Amino acid sequence: MKKYIYSLLIAAAAWAGSACERSGNETTGQAKSLDVETTELTFDAKGAAPREIAVTAENLTWEFRVAESAAEWLHAERDGEKLIVRVDDNSSPTERRGSVTIAPSEAGPVKSRTVTVVQLASDEKYSLSVNPERLDFAGTDAEPQVVKVVTEGTGLTWHSEVEGDAKEWISVEEGDGTVTVSVKDTSLEGPRSGNILIVPSLDNVAEKVIRVEQAGLPPMFAVDTESIEFDYRAKYYTNINVTAVNTEWTFHEANEAGDATEISWLKTNAAGDAVRVEAEVNATEEERVAYVVLTPAAEGLEPVKVAVRQTAANEILSTLTGDLDLGELAGVRATLMPKQTWDKVSTFSEWNLYLWEEGVSYKASTGAFVGTGARLAITLVSERINFNDDNAYYIPDGTYTVTALAEGETSAPGQLRYPAVSNTGHPKLPIGAWYTKLENDAYTKEQAPLVTGTLTVTRSGEEYTFVLDFEDDLGYAVAGSYTGAMELSVVGTARPEPTVELSLIHI
Question: Which end of the chain has fewer CB atoms at under 10 Å, N or C?
Answer without folding.
Answer: C
